[in-house]
Write a structure and sequence with these properties.
The protein is an alpha/beta fold and about 750 residues long. It has 26 helices and 20 strands. The structure holds thiamine diphosphate (TPP) and magnesium ion. The site of thiamine diphosphate has 16 residues, from strand 3 and strand 5.
Amino acid sequence: MATTKVDPKLNELSIAKKAKNYQGLTSQQLIDAYRIMFSSRRVDDREILLKRQQKVFFQISGAGHEAMGVAAALALKPAYDWFYPYYRDRALCLALGATPYEMLLGAVGAADDPSSGGRQMPSHWAFKRLNVVTQSSATGTQILQAIGCAEAGRYFARHPHATQKVEGDYRQFKDVQFQGDEITYVSLGDGTTSEGEFWEALNSASNLRLPVIFCVQDNEYAISVPVEVQTSGGNISRLVSGFPNFHFEEIDGTDPVVAYAALRRAADHCRGGHGPAFVHAHVIRPYSHSLSDDERLYRPDAERQADAARDPVPRLQMFLLREGILDEKGINKIEKEVEEQIQADADRALAAPVPQPETIYNFVYSPDLDPTSSSFESQPAFAAPETAADGKRSAASTPKTMADLINTTLRDEMRRDERVLIFGEDVADCSREEYVKQKLVKGKGGVFKLTSGLQIAFGSDRVFNSPLAEANIIGRATGMATRGLKPVVEIQFFDYIWPAMMQLRDELPIIRWRSNNAFSAPVVIRVAIGGYLTGGAIYHSQCGESIFTHTPGLRVVFPSNALDAAGLLRTAIRCDDPVLFLEHKRLYRETYGRSPYPGPDYMVPFGKAKVVQPGTDLTVITYGAVVPRALQAAQKLEREHHVSVELIDLRCLNPFDWEAIAASVKKTNRALIAYEDSLSWGYGAEIAARIADQLFHHLDAPVKRVAATDTFVAYQPILENAILPQASDLFRAMKELAEF
Ligand SMILES: Cc1ncc(C[n+]2csc(CCOP(=O)(O)OP(=O)(O)O)c2C)c(N)n1
Ligand SMILES: [Mg+2]
């Protein structure tokens, strides 16, 4: 572990002067740095003016953080290294090559705003050509994504074949770039170090020795909350110092020469393959948090003045004068040029076309690859049912469980596509792989064994265990997929998906939309879901799919049988959108719905329901583990009361097959929606509302729902049976509806 400390209170640009060089920086680089820092401040000032004139709608400044930005850009390489900045990194983006005009396009929300096309607030940087990856407003979500980005770079260096473009699936639309010794830079504020994801990211970067520079820009405030409230002892460097493999720096981040030297050392450590670096920079925040904040409410004048004395822009100006690098005339010339340029840029940005309302649906999903299309439809190719001498069918043609077919599909897709990676909790056969190699153990491969044998077949860099941290899984997968990998990750139980919710709601599904199609992250998330387990209880039985179908940008799939699971999983892996693939635990090894393996190219398109049985008297719309229960009820109803039920298995919940529902309800004039989740606000509510809205004139009876009670699922089987919808409940509801 290497540590270099510069006393932040020393606060002396003259450190560099005494050394009689500028830490390797030339005079011209320092002049350029001044131009960028001054530009950065002036873009902030211009936006503040425009906000006061109500010509822009939000402003957050990079003021006080400029020295860190120029230093990082000098130590790293745009379009080579990767950048996960945060909103204070205006100077960084300018120094990497973004222009004030582009930033002002963001401020006015112009159609040509390169970061988001007017979808995000200004200062939410994304510049694809510079490897500056789209960021959100959520503090800290970028950090785990940066980890995944660094992992992708390492993976591509070890698997160069995986970078090849392949026609016919998502790879056709994903250019992969990697350098072999690239660095991922991620920055954040002092307050953001309180987020759990920050610690998860440090842990993984350290453990995997990833080339990531964490840059904490400590202005001692998170809006109004001072650092000692956020950080035990008030100093984040002290808390993180125990992480192995890191290079640590704690510096005065208002001095670009000191900052450059520190970031150079950090970059050398990372590029040399020694592991990550942590740069803790003491900076200032001379403007309030944003234009919506007035810091005079919580910071006395004296404190604000002490900050102002360290302002990096005047300090660098003084330094250039003192060193004789520029005289007053030279400074004035730069400042005048910058002022004029920004004035002109602002005028131009204000005249730029704004996005048109009809574009709002663009890039919710991939514009390139439509997983509902016929290109994702293929016929099963079952193995011939050769009969062995003993009269038994060949293994390949015997019906297999859903668990078997998911495993085989994963195996075939991993073989076909080297970009497919699998990770999650317990998914590896054995993390201590020597145990397997020495044949001491057989290996686990998932708590439900769905990934069994995959690590042994494809190696530990393609199938591996994650820490027990769900945000870690989804955040890293998002960063990997942004770079072109195809992570197929597992969340062990739906009940434990919630630590990843920030990544699943505010990040993964909207990366494409918020960056106006500059970035995308088509991750597949397999999740074991559902009850009917006899003893699964509250925390191993939950459903909750409607929370995710309510998230634009996320495809949600929920197969009820082995064949559909195989076909839909293949579509999920080959498509270009993020997919939540819900696997019902109770169906994993059921007798119902078994199938021989349909071959390595079998696909089922998204959004196409299956009519499980045709009927004429009423329509039952369902999915997942309710399908076999509804079928049982429908058959009984037919037998005992001659009611003919049309049973529709949706298979895919977003998109869902409205055409199939409408065609059936128009025929039967009666509709029942059945689902395993608790009744109120559940998935069926949306379907019921649409039927009521659009098929009102075709209905002969009210639209009915059967679902779980509005409780969680209990442990004692008597209670579980009462809570979850049973075949008997479905039978009763169908009969009532038929008789209405
Ligand atoms: C997860 C989350 N919680 C709260 C907010 C609201 N918020 C925006 S910035 C901020 C303070 C961030 O402080 P710090 O990390 O120190 O960065 P600074 O703004 O000081 O540079 C807060 C609370 C948010 N954007 N995201
Ligand atoms: Mg702060």
